[in-house]
Amino acid sequence: MTTTTITEATTATTAQGRIEIQDLVKQYGSDAPAVAGIDLAIESGEFITLLGPSGSGKTTTLNMIAGFVEPTSGAILLNGNDLTRVAPHRRNFGMVFQNYALFPHMTVFDNVAYPLRQRNKTKAEVRTLVLDILERFGLGGMEHRRPAQLSGGQQQRVALARALVFSPSLVLLDEPLGALDRKLRQSLQAELKSLHQDVGLTFVFVTHDQEEAMFLSDTIAVFNNGRIDRVGRPAELYDDPGTLFVANFLGEANVFAGAWADPQTYGWQDEKWRAATDDRPADAVLVVRPERMRVYPASDVPAGWNSVGATVTDVSRLGPVSRIDLVLPDGRVGAAVLPSNEAVRVGVGDRVRAAWEVGAQAFVVGEAA
Ligand code: ADP
Ligand code: MG
């Protein structure tokens, strides 16, 4: 019943959370720009994650959307209207930060009521909305406590309730689960995902954790050094990362920086590998995900597969899958992750062929370090 109330309260805004970012730049002093010109369209109702390493410009971008940081140039549009010069409190966005940022001297009730009172809701409306959302977040009966009397997970639920209670047109979340331990983080990830599905609002989420991004997002924008390297659905980016940076940041990759021998053949060291005929950038680097890599004695490589000589340096049994660490002919490390029943015949020191199907390889651009 309480869920219905939140949904009803927010339906009016569900068609109104489309963001368009145009050539956005933030330059602090004479340093390299924190944000170096990004373009991004965020669809209404979408869960988008800004993913990237520390210092890549995620928080600066989020703060420009929120209005806390003024862009050096570029524009941000909400449903086609230019927001760039609109004051933060006029944007009607909900915000959640890593450190909760609750008012420590206020009760849970007053923390969540705060944005409603700022919007001049009646006492009765405030009471209904706050109690409903606290129930929805598993905080029923805790309205008289202060933040210090709550666990970290409960405090973060209060912060989320406060960000959502006034039916914002956009919810901005900056590493909101970063301070929680792994188990609690995973359970809040699941809650956040189902919450997003219930309320249908646009969520812009920041994290440096690729697994968290893959689990939560409809769309991921990968930040690299103040720019967006790639935007796409999680599976798309994982299978066809486009750049070496994305291939390495979103998971793990075996990397072969070779060159085209002819349009269907990619050469690397003494190897000649088959390539499918489409999508082959000129300066391509071949990448293979560890779970697509298999390990065979030289004579057993399946017909039509590509393969490379390798030496096994470690075998770790992780339960249903095992990880085989490899050293490749150029001295780089590689890895294969296989079902454990296939790994039993592999031992440390074995000379093997690491092999993959042609369809399992992807070509990316970027300098191999
Ligand atoms: P992220 O959130 O991805 O870790 P940030 O957006 O916080 O990255 O920072 C991007 C870059 O901008 C970093 O090099 C950071 O040092 C710089 N930066 C961020 N805020 C400021 C500021 N207020 N003044 C000067 N430099 C800043
Ligand atoms: Mg940050």
Question: What is this entry, summarized?
Answer:
This protein has 369 residues and is α+β, with helices and mostly antiparallel strands.
Shape: elongated
Question: What is the CATH class of the largest domain?
Answer: Alpha Beta
Q: Number of helix segments?
A: 10
Which ligands accompany this protein?
A: adenosine-5'-diphosphate, magnesium ion
CATH names the topology of the largest domain as Rossmann fold
Strand content: 25-35%
Name given to the CATH homologous superfamily of the largest domain: P-loop containing nucleotide triphosphate hydrolases
Which oligomeric state applies?
single chain
Task: Estimate nothing, just give the exact number of structural domains.
Answer: 2
Structural class of the helix and strand makeup? alpha+beta
Kindly state the percentage of residues in helix.
25-40%
Proper CATH architecture of the largest domain: 3-Layer(aba) Sandwich
Overall pLDDT confidence: 91
Unreliable segments (pLDDT under 50, ≥5 consecutive)?
A: 1-15
How many individual β-strands? Answer: 21
| Strands side by side in the biggest sheet | 6-7-8-3-9-10
Distance between the termini: 55 Å
Structural Rg = 25 Å
Main pleated-sheet profile: 6 strands, mixed
Keywords: ATP-binding, Nucleotide-binding, Transport
GO molecular function: ATP binding
Pfam family, one: ABC_tran
Domain ABC transporter: 19-250
